[in-house]
Specification:
single chain; alpha+beta; four-stranded antiparallel β-sheet
Length: 72
C-alpha cells in the first residue's frame, strides 16, 4: 500500500467569498485520489493532498465546474 501523500498547489482566479471557497473545495474533493483540500481565499490558492498524482487538467475542469479558473 502506498502511504505517500503528494501535495500540489494551484492558483485560482475569481474567488471572492467563503461560498467560492466551499464550491471549489467540494468540486476538487470529488477527484480520484484526493485526500484533502485547503482553499485559501486571501492568496487565491488551492492546496491539494492526494495519494496519487493528480492530473492538472482534471483540477482545472473541477474548478471550472465550480465557476472559477486555474491560472497556474
Amino acid at each position: 500500500m502506498n502511504d505517500t501523500i503528494i501535495t500540489t498547489t494551484f492558483t485560482i482566479t475569481g474567488m471572492t467569498c467563503s461560498h467560492c471557497v466551499n464550491a471549489v473545495t467540494e468540486e476538487i474533493c470529488q477527484l480520484d485520489g484526493v485526500t484533502g483540500v485547503h482553499v485559501d481565499l486571501a492568496t487565491g490558492t488551492a492546496t491539494i493532498d492526494s495519494n496519487q498524482q493528480i492530473d492538472p487538467a482534471a483540477v482545472a475542469a473541477a474548478v471550472d465546474e465550480a465557476g472559477y479558473e486555474v491560472v497556474s
